[in-house]
Amino acid sequence: MTTSSLGKIAVVGSGAVGCYYGGMLAEIGADVHFLMRADLAAVRAGGLTIRTQGKTVHRQVQAHATTAEIGPCDLVIVALKTTANASLDELIPPLLHERTAIVTLQNGLGNEEYLATRWGAERVLGALCFVCLNRTAPGEIVHLDHGTISIGEFGRGLSPRLEALAAALQRAGIEAHPVPNLVTERWRKLVWNIPFNGLAIAAGGATVADVLADPVLRAEARTLMSDVLDGARRLGHEISDEFADFQIERSASMGPYRPSSMIDWQERRPVEIEAIWGEPLRQGQAAGAAMPRLSLLYALLQRLTHTDLLKP
Amino acid sequence: MTTSSLGKIAVVGSGAVGCYYGGMLAEIGADVHFLMRADLAAVRAGGLTIRTQGKTVHRQVQAHATTAEIGPCDLVIVALKTTANASLDELIPPLLHERTAIVTLQNGLGNEEYLATRWGAERVLGALCFVCLNRTAPGEIVHLDHGTISIGEFGRGLSPRLEALAAALQRAGIEAHPVPNLVTERWRKLVWNIPFNGLAIAAGGATVADVLADPVLRAEARTLMSDVLDGARRLGHEISDEFADFQIERSASMGPYRPSSMIDWQERRPVEIEAIWGEPLRQGQAAGAAMPRLSLLYALLQRLTHTDLLKP
Questions:
Q1: Which of A182, A188, A270, B140 makes a 20 to 30 Å CA pair with B2?
Q2: Same domain for A111 and A163
């Protein structure tokens, strides 16, 4: 399988995640086109820079102002924030030919469904990125830690195109895993994200260490995980209680880590409330899970992030 | 029954509530002694002023710096904030003779128990004050609205001393009701206070109108009430679902009302977290109620009010 087997690639949403994965693919010779807004002029003039694992990748890349300028592709990588999903309705169509695949690297639930509803479920893949990235300047990304990516077909098992994409990412130096049960993986990630990202905001700016150090909040974090497990299981995703216990234990090593949603909130950027809390709540409740703590947490978060009252 | 039948009265905690009820009793000739701290000099010099229902009550009152100075009384009115309850251990003993009654006007649950454990259950009465008061200056109270007070024996039905106290308050112009089931009345008040005082803080400074206008928060307010009803019922206090529905409906007329805990929080004063949320949660859970939303709300509130992170 060669890199060129991926064909022409578009990256929609060229923040840190899009630039990192797209840039690493470009570095091994893939034909990658970036849709850019704020960083367009800087990247056209100075290229894209990725500082990763002690080395610096610097290269000129194909940067575009519109998806019409990019035109039909074989693979579209969606890395927008989920709060901007409505803009996909205009951005995606110019990129499609009959067999274009679309892979969303976005957080939470509902993104594959969004794409599938509009452009056909058969096109859609999804990926979970476990990576710490920082955009330090226009066109400049620092890769701080991790980088694993789990990729799956939406509602299907493994496939040749999935294997090809994972293989290309691996050649680009990224630990990529094809997974046969993408949605289960999404729920597993939510077991951590729902309590720790959520309490971080609702408790007024609480780092992971803050939550773990407060016995009352720590117990709520674990019980929130039980709400998530309940929803997941009723939807057919078996996740064990021990997995949740381990999520609490492993968090101790994170120290005063600020979950990404807390940073978004503190920096007054949109918070991905619906993808991380709203959609899991709706899906779980539709399947018969009560999820009472998630319900209250969601209610508080949707208000806290829609007003400026508490933003520092 | 004459006013003097109440005998010598001490008011411990001479904030707005203590000054109002104590001052109104003094105005009809009762022998009332106020324990004062911050306002002592001002009240000794200028007396106590209560502006109520279009008239102004102004009188010299007996103000003291210590309870030893007051000495044994027939009735002790406790109107401290519950967050200062630990100070009662020193304040109360000098006020007691063998048959001294103690009535707490404090909020929430656990206050009668606090007094009963230390000085005997047979002394204890409690009262719920439905009143809007403002302390506008040292020794100056404005009575804004309401004023009803429900008084009951702790763990007992009606009694002559209870009837005498209620009758004296009525002569002072206060709508006082003796109630045979004080703790049930406390739970009924919590049906409103737990959601509306709690969401006001946890949702970042949400008035009653803000909570009602947000359909997601409004639904959580009602479901929080169901948690409270569950706890109350398991403790033997029958409160109907219709009562909770009515609490939501009647709140519409309150407009942008700031619940008292929200004002405390915004003005960086201690918030009565344990009396309003912690103790009902512990009592309800001990009786087998899950109260999941109250559990999360309490966890958030105890953190939000113990840090300065979010205080405006």
A1: B140
A2: yes
- Distance between CA atoms of residues B180 and B125, nearest Å: 11
Q: Would you give the end-to-end CA distance of chain B in angstroms?
A: 50
CA distance B215 to chain A (A): 9
- Our CA-based measurement puts residue A196 at a distance from the nearest CA of chain B, in whole angstroms, of 13
Q: Residues A25, A2: contact at Cβ < 8 Å?
A: no
Distance CA B158, CA B160 (A): 7
| The residue type at B165 | L
Rounded-to-integer distance, Cα B42 and Cα A55, Å: 72
Which residue from A182, A277, A195, A280 is spatially nearest to A234, judged by alpha carbons? Answer: A280
Determine the Cα–Cα distance for residues A169 and B139; give it in Å rounded to an integer. 74
State whether A204 and B310 contact (CB < 8 Å).
yes
Residue B7: per-residue pLDDT: 96
> Residue B277 carries which DSSP code?
I
Instruction: Could you list the beta-strand ranges (E) of B154-268.
Output: 176-178
Report the alpha-carbon distance of residue B284 to residue A59 in Å, rounded.
63
Beta partners for A50? A57, A141
Strands (E) across chain A are located at 8-12, 31-35, 48-52, 55-59, 62-64, 75-78, 101-104, 124-137, 140-153, 176-178
The domain boundary residue, chosen from B152, B180, B208: B180
pLDDT at B311: 46
> Which residues span the domain enclosing A224?
184-306
Of A30, A198, A12, the closest CA to residue A87 belongs to A12
Residues of chain A short of pLDDT 50, as ranges, are 1, 310-312
Asked which of B180, B211, B246 is the last residue of a domain, the reply is: B180
> Which of A206, A296, A307 lies closest to B303 in CB terms?
A206
Whether residues A159 and A216 share a domain: the answer is no
DSSP bridge pairs for B51: B56, B142
Task: Find, among B309, B198, B188, the residue nearest to B262 by Cα.
Answer: B198
Which residues in chain B (55-114) have CB-CB distances under 8 A to chain A?
Answer: none
How confident is the model over A107-141, as pLDDT tens digits?
999 999 999 999 999 999 999 998 888 889 999 99
Is some CB atom of chain B closer than 8 A to the CB atom of A307?
A: yes
Which CATH number fits the domain that encloses residue A163? 3.40.50.720
Give yes or no: residues B131 and B249 share one domain: no
Distances (CA, A) of B299 to A203, A216, B13, B70, B202: 8, 6, 28, 40, 10
Shared-domain flag, residues B174 and B26: yes
pLDDT in tens, A32-59: 999 999 999 999 999 999 999 889 999 9
Residues B79 and B223 in one domain: no
Q: Are residues B164 and B39 in the same domain?
A: yes
| CATH code for the domain in which residue A236 is found | 1.10.1040.10
Which DSSP letter does residue B69 get?
H
Answer yes or no: is the ipTM higher than 0.95: no
Question: Low-confidence residues of chain B, pLDDT below 70?
Answer: 1-4, 307-312
